[in-house]
Structures are given as C-alpha cells and as structure tokens.
Specification:
Layout (H helix, E strand, L loop, with lengths): L1 H11 L11 E3 L1 E17 L2 E5 L4 E6 L6 E2 L4 E5 L2 H36 L5 H33 L2 E3 L4 E6 L6 E2 L4 E6 L4 E8 L3 H7 L2 E5 L4 E4 L2 E8 L5 E7 L12 E17 L4 E3 L2 E7 L5 E5 L1 E7 L2 E6 L6 E3 L2 H11 L1
Antiparallel strand pairs: 1-22, 2-11, 2-16, 3-10, 4-6, 4-9, 5-8, 6-7, 8-10, 11-15, 12-13, 12-16, 14-15, 16-21, 17-18, 18-19, 18-22, 20-21
Length: 340
Amino acid sequence: MTRTLALLLLLASPAAFAALPFKLGTVEFREVDQTYAAEGLVEAVKQSTISAQIAGRIVELKFDVGDYVKQGQVIARIDESVVGAQAAGSQAQVAQARAMLENARAQYERSKQLFAQNFISKAALDKATTDYKAAQAQAAVSLAGAGEAAATRRFATLVAPYSGVVSARYVELGEMAMPGKPIMTGFDPKDLRVEVSVPQYKVPAVREMSRATIELPAIHKWVKAASVTILPAADVKTHSSRVRLDLPEETRDVYPGMFARAYFAVGRAKKLLVPAAAVLRRSELTAVYVVDAKDNVQLRQIRVGEPAGEGQLEVLSGLMPNEKVALDPVQAGIYLSQKK
C-alpha cells in the first residue's frame, strides 16, 4: 500500500512531466492589453533606385540581389569613353580661352599706355577694353563647361548612397545604359517599418496608449513596435488614417513587402491565455493536447479569441487555469498514437 501511494505521488509531482518527449506550457489567467488588429505591409524607410545619368555600355557590375553594400562602395561602372573625350575637349577649350585671355590682357595694358601718351585714339582703347572683357567671359564659359564635363564623367561610376541590401537588379553586364534607366534598387535593413490603416474612431485609443505589437506570420515572429506614429491625414473614401510602426533595429529576416499584422493596445483586461505554439489548427478544428499530472495526454477542442501578444492566445472555452498543454502538438500527437 505504501509503494502504491508513493507511485501515485511520483506521478502527481512536476518531475513526472520530465519524461514526456515535448515541452509543456501553462494556461494562465492574467491581465493583458486589449488590442485592435490592423493589417499592413513592411516597408523600408530608406529605399532607393540607382539610375544611369549618362548613356554608355555597362562594363562592370559588382553586386547582385541579396548582397550587402557599404556606403560609398562602387556598385556599377558605365563606359566613360565618350564622356572622357568630352572632358578632354573641355580642358583643351579652357587652355585656349586662357591663352586668349592673356593675349587680350596684354593688348589692353599696352593700349592704356599708348592712349596715355596720345599715340592711339579713344576708340582703339575702347576696342581693347571690349576684347579683354570678352576674353574674360569666354574663359569663364570654358571653365564652366569643363566643370560640367568633369561632373558628367563622374556619373560613369555609380556608388551606394548608404549601406544596405540590394533588392533588385535591372541590367546585365554589357547592356546599354541610358539616362534614367534603373540599375539597382536597395534598402537599409536596419530601418524598417510597418504601415497600416486605422479607422478614425479607433485613432484616439491608439494615440492614448501609443503601444503596439507586430506579428510577422511569414517568419512566425512577434516584435514590439519601437514607436507608433499617426499621420496627420485621413482618407476621404475609407475614413481611415495611416499609422506607421517602426520595427526594432535587431529585427532579422524581414524585408519590404512582407505581410504584417499590428495589434494596438487600446485598454487592459484579464484574460485566460494559452501559448500560441500549443494550438493545433486542422481545417475547422482548433485544439490543444492537454497533459494531466499522470502524463495522460488528451486532445481537447477549444475556442480561441484574439492574440494577446508575446506568443499568447486568448482562450474563450475549453481550458481551465493552470492546466498543462503540449507546446509541440505534432510531437504530442505522435506520442499519443504510440501509447494506444
């Protein structure tokens, strides 16, 4: 009798759960945020498309989609033969204009001396003065042209304006680039946000608490919004306002265009919670594997409400506080089938 009682106590103890091939979670009744859910997309705060500013053949492409590029690194080069020749021609024109300017200056100085000695007329001095000013203007024009040619030549080398990841490449090596033709698109993965639409009647509650949790279903991740910004404008057709939620810098595996769901805190309430990982969804069935103190595993249908953040779901029916559930429903199902 004593051995039987000892065995029952062992099965009822927490150590009995350690024999199970899966981890357990606890159904808890606690105060959490009441939330309002809104769907949106991830977008990059810094995202830009680098385009060609001159015509020429692409002779070098240093990066491809998915590559990380540091600020200032060369991402592509365009053949600069034509613009290089234009720059050389502009420099030659500058040299010619300077020579003409020196000649006009010397002629002007001589004309002033001769006019002072009454050897030339006032008209001759006026002509020398006009020629000198014209040479000055021509030199300025040549210098400006040379500067423009040098700037155009620099357009043959495309550099990254900031550090980021290449998300699209639109050209191949050897293709012809034309002014305005996109070359690459990139974004800064450290500066991402989610933008959603919120009905106007919900905006005051969202503004009051200014706190939200973001669900990224594609990567099964929940993160807290670093900040919540309500744009000071409303859509006249949908009567909704745009809200931006900044993602924390440490968020990984997130890219512009990904689907996201924002849960705005609009109040506080006590709810019965179950770990979201424990919930099994099969067609119309929503259930969990409940484990009692004797390691008995039972599949139990439940009804859940909205997510409560931090990987928790609200339980509307089917569970009681402090019950244990399997955090790996697949493994729990295999375990149950092997025991039968």
